[in-house]
Amino acid sequence: MHSFRYSQNRLHCEAVSLANLVKRFGTPLYVYSQATLTDHYTKLDRSFAPLDRLICFAMKSNSNLAVIRALADLGSGFDTVSGGEIQRVIAAGGDPRKCVFAGVGKTEQEIAFALRQGIYSFNFESEAELKRISQVAVKLKKIAPVAARVNPNVDAGTHAKITTGTYANKFGIAFEQIEGVYARAAKLPNLRLRGLQMHIGSQLTDVQPFRLAVERVAPLVKKLSHKYGFDFFSVGGGIGIVYQPALESGDPQWWRQPDAQKILTPQAYADTLVPLLRPLGLKILFEPGRFLTGNAGALVTRVEYIKHTGKKHFVIVDAAMNDLIRPAFYDSYHEIVPVIRQRGAVVPSDVVGPICESGDYFAKDRPLAKVREGDYLALLSAGAYGSVMSSNYNSRPLTAEVLVNGRRVALVRQRQKVRDIWAGESCAPWQASARS
Q: Catalytic site residue 356?
């Protein structure tokens, strides 16, 4: 489900016309739906009602303060991968005591900060990291709650750049080594062995890899929990979304491609995992990112030029790969639709941005209705790994972001001014004075 739909041929986010938003805020523009965030969080949480549970939003997917606050208000915890992300949680009014801290390269400063904030657990990914956490905890005279990230060596069958659960990946500790790691961890000072964590990858649309991973890891969790008194088991995140929905006036809940009905729903996910998890008697943590925010966002862009070559029809827009890198980075698909729908001939089009890179594209040979200079397009399902992965490449300012809640609209990130891009830079003292 998402809340982007047509009404009288105008694309809306909830009750707000995107055409009105671009008049107020310009383009490129990220637009987020609070109703979609709420709906997705609530459905996942209710599906696992038989369990003691905590949903920890993976904020690497979207770290806008308003998005964080919307989820915090629903009771969400947070899956963080840097000290900066923990600071964002606090800035947004979230509870650091509901934060887990993951990632393979935690610095001493980040560990110390997280300890002082009283985070729920460090998900450690190597024994070297575990020893560092112990050393920092001793210095601060604190007890560090820890959980190993176990690598179950289960291939999620997804894109190579978002697979994390096999021994070819940098993440986690090999399944066969876990018992020895915990035996040695129990001898280190100032640690509390709080649980076990796993995460096998992202954008999974089949429950089978989750089932295989949990079936393999659950007996290990039970054994270790009996020995060390665990509080929780985290099954990570990775639930996929539909990136190719067909918009119909007033009905965003049906899909174009024949196999789209196979998308993994929260209820199907829960129906498979609850019977495997309930016997453990532990709190179960979930770490979804894309599932909560992906379909909650769109990137709106203006058509600047139409260009024809001997073989290609190019639609050149004002958004670029620095605003949304997924198509260039992952060859990812985003549905592209007009903000104002008009009838006309469909033309195979390359939708491209202004950056000086051949990889700066959003679609190639995509069948699109003819558009003109000055029209607006929306790239849907851009709420995850969109703005959060943006950059200032080509000295392009970061985009504005808007949150919609029913008929209410708030600018939740101002458009960056060009001069602010280099505000922290300066010429060297021996260089000629720069022009003001």
A: yes
